[in-house]
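Lab manual, section 2.4: Encoding a predicted structure.

Procedure: take the sequence of the chain (122 residues), apply the prediction step described in section 2.3, and record the output as structure tokens. A sample record is shown.
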Amino acid sequence: MIKKLLAATSLAALTAVAQAGDSWSEAQQASGIALGTLLLVDYLQTRQIAKQPEIYHEINPVLGKHPSLGTVNTYFAGAAILGYLALDALPSDMRSWALGAGIVLELAVTAHNNTIGLKARW
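Recorded output:
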């Protein structure tokens, strides 16, 4: 399921890149770094879910309730690459909005994970 989703999203992202959007402003670059950092924290927290299925379960329906480490690795690698490609293809005003939305979403996810005891560790 994840591989098919990644393949379809890759094709869509590569098509969008062919029509690449505007260059990134300094503020967008900073937001991109913040979003990437939050995605890394989410990834590390999700690895803890995969390593401790007797304690935790995943709520992302794409990953399933008890994803393997391989599934987590594939999902987050794809999310990072495809997310960047999609953001890069957007016009500047839409990119700023999408970066902000991504940051809010990742802040909510990582904060929730932290409240249930998940730490960002390898």
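Check your result against the sample. The CA atoms of residues 24 and 92 lie 7 Å apart.
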